[in-house]
Amino acid sequence: MEEFRVLSPTAILGYGFPLESFARGMEFKPHVIAVDAGSTDPGPYYLGAGVSFTDRQAVKRDLEIMLKAGLEQRIPVIVGSAGGAGADPHLEWCLEIVREIAREAKLHFRMASISAELEKSMLEEALADGRISVLEPGKPLTREELEASVHVVAQMGMEPFIRALEAGADVIIAGRSYDPAVFAALPVSKGFDPGLALHMGKILECAAIAASPGSGSDCMLGILKEAHFCVEPLHPARKCTTSSVAAHTLYEKTNPYLLPGPGGMLDLKDCRFFQETEYRVRVEGSRFIPAPKYTLKLEGAKQVGYRTLSIAGARDPVFIEQLDMIIAGVKERLADNFKDVAPSRYQLLFHIYGRDGVMGELEPTPQITSHEVGIIMEVVAETQELADTILSFARSTMLHYGYPGRISTAGNLAFPYSPSDLKTGPVYQFSVHHLLEVDDPVALFPITWECI
Amino acid sequence: MKKVSIRALAVVIRSKNAGPYELTFDLIFKDSATYQRVKKSGFFTPELFAELYRVPLADVISFVEFDPANAIKCTIRRPRAAGDVGETDVYGAQQHAPLLDLAVPIDAEVIP
C-alpha cells in the first residue's frame, strides 16, 4: 500500500461539518473515517457525572452521515473518547445513538465497542505495587483519592483499535482514547510509520482547526505515505499553510517537540513543514520513540459537593468602592448566624467581574475601574440543602447590607433572574491524572461485539 | 532600540489548558523575520512570564522557541486545577490578556 487516506469530519463528534466538505472528502476515497469525540477540557463535571458535553441530536446528525458513508464505501468508521469523557456511561450513550441510527436507517454492520473504564480494585493493586506514577505538576495519587473517584478511565492507544480492526469491525465505538489513536491505528496496522501516523492524527483530531481560517466544525483529509504525510482541508474557503499546521502542533501541549502518549513519545525535533500545493501541507521527520515501559494516562473525577449560585450586578459607586469590606461583612454575618454549621461543610465564594472575575489570582491589575461590576455569589456545600441555605443567607445579607456612606437604602444588588438562586447540583474535581504502567496495551480495554 | 507593540508583531496570542494542571501560552509571529528579531531581542524569558502572571519562577514549567511555527510558547502551573471550586476559566482560554499589552524592544531598523 503506497498511500493511506484518513477523513476527519469534525474536531469533536457533535460539533458538525458542512455536507459539501464531507462529500468532497469521500471523493478522495478515504480508507477510514475517524473522529475524536472527547476531551477533559470542559472540566471534571462530565467525567464525574457520567454525562456528555455534546448534544445528543448533534452527535446523532454527525454519526448518521459518517456511518452511512462508511458502510456504503465499505470502510471502517472509528469513534474515540465516546460521549466526551469516555467512561462506560458515556460509551453506552454513544452506542445507543448508533443503534438508533441503525434501526431507523436499516443499516447492518459489525460493531466493536471498547471500554476504557477501569475497576477500582485493579487500580488499588496497581497503586500498592507502585505501578501508578505522578504526572507533574500534579500530586501523587493516594488511596483515598482513588476510592473517592466516581469514574476512572485510561486513554487507550492504537493497540485495542488494531485488535478490533483485525477482527473485522466495520464500526468501532471506543471509550477514552488518546486523541490521535483513532486516526493512526489502521494505517499503522498496515505497516505505515507510527511517528508520521500519530503526528498526522494529532493534526486531524481537531479537523480543520489546523487550516487557515481554522474551524473545529469542518472536515480535513490526511494522506499518509512512506516518509511523509500531507493534510488538506476539504472546504475551498480554507487552506493549510506551513504556519497553520506547525502552529497547531503547539496547541494544548506543554512542549511542541516532545509529545508523550501511550507507549511512547512523539519526537518532533526534526520535523519539517512544506507547502505542497496552495491548500496542502507536507510534513516530514516526525518520529515515534517507544518507551521502555508502556504507560497509560489515567483520568478520574470525584464529587466534592453541591453548588448553588446567584448572579447580580452593582452600579452604585459608593457600594463598588467598599466592595471588599462589604464582602468581609457578609462573611462575618454568615459565620455568626450559622455558628452551629462547621465552616468546613461549605465554601462561599464571590466572583467579581469587572475586577478579577476572569483571571483570579493571576490578574495583574486587580483594581475596579468600571462604573459597574458583575457579582457571582457561589456556595459549594456538603448537601444541596446546605448550599441553598448558605447562599440564600449570603444573597439576602448582601442585598440589604448597610455600609458606611450608604444612601441607596432600597437594595445593593441588581438580579437579572427570578428565582435569583440557581441550584446547579453536584460539583466534581479531577482526582486522578496519573500514569499507569501496563504489560499489555490491550488487556485493560475489553472489546464487546454486536452484529447490527 | 524602539519598543513595538506585540500586537503589531504576532498573529496569534492565546492561552489554553495543557491538561487540567497546566496553562500554556502561544505567541505566533507574523513571519520568520519578525520571529527571529523577537527571539534575538531576548525579551521573552521564563522570568517575564513569572513576573507577568505573578507566579514563582518554579511554576514556569517550560519555555520553548518553536522555529517551525515562528512561535514562542510558555507553560505555567495553573493556580487551581481546571474546574476546581473557585477556578475561573475552565478552558484557560482568557488568560492571555496581559500579553497583549507588551511592547518588545527591537532594533529600529528592522521594525516590520
What does it look like?
The complex is a heterodimer of chains A (452) and B (112). Chain A is an alpha+beta fold and 452 residues long. Chain A is 30% helix and 27% strand. Chain A contains 13 helices and 19 strands. Chain A has helices at residues 19-27, 45-49, 56-72, 88-105, 120-128, 143-148, 159-166, 181-189, 194-204, 242-250, 317-321, 323-337, 384-399; strands at 4-8, 32-36, 77-80, 110-114, 132-134, 149-154, 171-174, 220-224, 228-233, 258-261, 264-267, 272-275, 281-284, 287-290, 294-314, 346-353, 373-381, 421-438, 447-451. In chain A, strands 12-13-9-8-1-2-3-7-4-19 form a ten-stranded mixed beta sheet, with helices on both faces. In chain A, strands 5, 6, 15, 16, 17 and 18 form a six-stranded antiparallel beta sheet that branches. In chain A, a hairpin with a 5-residue loop joins β12 (272-275) and β13. In chain A, α3 (56-72) crosses α4, α7 (159-166) crosses α8 (181-189) and α12 (323-337) crosses α13. The mean pLDDT of chain A is 96. Chain B is an alpha+beta fold. Helix content of chain B is 19%, strand content 34%. Chain B is elongated, with a radius of gyration of 14 Å. The two termini of chain B are 13 Å apart. The mean pLDDT of chain B is 92. At the A-B interface, α10, β16 and β18 of A face β2, β3, β4 and β5 of B.
Distance between the termini of chain B: 13 Å
Question: How much helix is in the residues of chain B?
Answer: 10-25%
- The strand line-up of the biggest sheet of chain B is 2-3-5-4
User: Which stretches of chain A are poorly predicted, pLDDT < 50 over at least 5 residues?
Assistant: none
Proportion of β residues of chain A? 25-35%
Structural class of chain B: alpha+beta
The major β-sheet of chain A equals: 10 strands, mixed
